[in-house]
Amino acid sequence: MVSLKTSHLDIAYEDRLIVEDLNISIPEGKITALVGANGSGKSTVLKTMARILQPKAGTVLLNGKSIHKQSTREVAKQLAILPQNPTAPEGLTVYELVSYGRFPHQKGFGGLKAEDRKIVEWAIEATRMSEFTDRALEQLSGGQRQRAWIAMALAQETDILFLDEPTTFLDMAHQLEVLQLLEELNAASQRTIVMVVHDLNHAARYAHYMIAIKKGQAVASGTPEEVVTSPVLRDVFGIEADIVTDPRSGVPLCLPYELYRAATEGKVRPAAKDGREEPERKVVSFQ
Predict the structure, then answer these.
(1) What does the pLDDT read at residue 272?
(2) In terms of domains, do 44 and 172 share one?
(3) Which of 97, 205, 238, 274 has the smallest count of CB within 10 Å of its CB?
(4) Beta-strand pair 16-22/25-26
(5) Which residues cross the membrane (predicted)?
(6) d(CA 98, CA 96)
């Protein structure tokens, strides 16, 4: 297993500071979700932790060493990242794409060894893509393409997997397909998974640990029960919501019903169907 954390991390785009003095730790062997409003800096944090972006100050520590002082090949043996909307040359097959994941482990220009091919085949099978091995990526559905990219990341054989909004532009069925796959991979190998998730309920359902980010700051972290609360939702997303308990998984579900600023501007609560004022909303549990 590997350890990953940030220490007094500052991240800037040119002269604009996006993240300031960020100190977070990623639990080993768990699924961690970074959540926050659009523009909060969560993807910027993920990219910097994955060594795609260079911090302005502070450091990202991978196994106690600055990740930005380690070689690309050394880092690639420890973590893999799936960015938003990855692209590949037209005509590239699933097998060819997944084979790229073996690059950090290859020496010279000898191509794939028998062990490499074995791992590529395992990654394809683990992501249930065996029937599409020789199919071009552009001939796949959105969910199938995303699984192929995840297979490539798995072929790197890293202990940490980063994903930047892995369900973006996918319909509900394909979103669940990808998230359930990640859940299975974590359960099978205790691989540390860090993902930026747009849907708060998906984050609560599939992550063991959540970090809520607002304006580049981690304002809440912990289990879904500790993060998906009314005060955090008001602060991070600016919404009022009912928090209910999922009867199947037992995790909290967020049911937003109005903007927080509207609730604080003296807005009259809507009337119920019988003409009476709607009662105050409370935390409830479905039994």
Answers:
(1) 46
(2) yes
(3) 274
(4) unpaired
(5) none
(6) 6
